[in-house]
Amino acid sequence: MRVVVSGATGFMGGRLCAALADAGHDVRAFALRGVDASGLPPSVVVVYGDVTDEESLAAAFRGRDAVFHTAAAVEAWLPDASVFHTVR
């Protein structure tokens, strides 16, 4: 299966990418530009974008059979709580 994982450089996303790759899936990791993706398996293709940017999401999802959304806003407190809803 051809999948994309948002939040691929996070704790859950990185482990999910590895498990999917180990199971033989074609994995595309969706990550924020500038984030260290070196911990992902070599077979995982990293594409950069932002879950709040519709165009980068559409480009990342193109040609995929499934999406695993593990991206999250992890700050304990934000002045604008709508960020949590936007990311989810």
TrEMBL record:
Entry-linked Gene3D superfamilies: NAD(P)-binding Rossmann-like Domain
GO cellular component, one term: cytoplasm
Residues annotated as domain NAD(P)-binding: 7-73
Domain of life, per lineage: Eukaryota
Single GO MF descriptor: aldehyde dehydrogenase (NAD+) activity
A Pfam entry, by short name: NAD_binding_10
PANTHER family: NAD(P)-BINDING DOMAIN-CONTAINING PROTEIN-RELATED, PROTEIN YEEZ
Name the record gives this protein: NAD(P)-binding domain-containing protein
Organism: Panicum virgatum (Blackwell switchgrass)
Source organism phylogeny: Eukaryota, Viridiplantae, Streptophyta, Embryophyta, Tracheophyta
